[in-house]
Amino acid sequence: MIECLPTCTGPDNPPRWEPITYADWQTWWYDANYNPKDQRDVA
Questions:
Q1: What b/e sequence results for 5-39 when a residue is b if at least 16 CB atoms lie within 10 Å of its CB, and e otherwise?
Q2: What span, in angstroms and rounded, lies between the C-alpha atoms of 5 and 22?
Q3: Given a cut of 70, is residue 43 above it in pLDDT?
Q4: What is the DSSP letter of 28?
Q5: Do 21 and 1 contact (CB within 8 A), yes or no?
Q6: Distance of alpha carbon 26 from alpha carbon 12, whole angstroms
């Protein structure tokens, strides 16, 4: 789980983003940075 550290947040400083699992973040990152049409199967 990726989330804001408790010491970095407070009533006047809420976390910027919701907690997310690493797998969900990695999926988002690949989708945002790689176009599947440009990739070739090298396996």
A1: eeeeeeeeeeeeeeeeeeeeeeeeeeeeeeeeeee
A2: 16
A3: no
A4: H
A5: yes
A6: 30
Q: How many CB atoms lie within 10 A of CB 2?
A: 11
Q: Extract the tokens encoding 33.
A: 């940075």
Confidence of residue 7 (pLDDT cuts 50, 70, 90): very high
Average pLDDT rounded to a whole number, residues 32-40 = 78
Backbone angles phi, psi at 13, to 5 degrees: -140, 75
Amino acid at 14: P
For the chain, give the mean pLDDT.
89
Answer yes or no: is pLDDT of 15 > 70.
yes
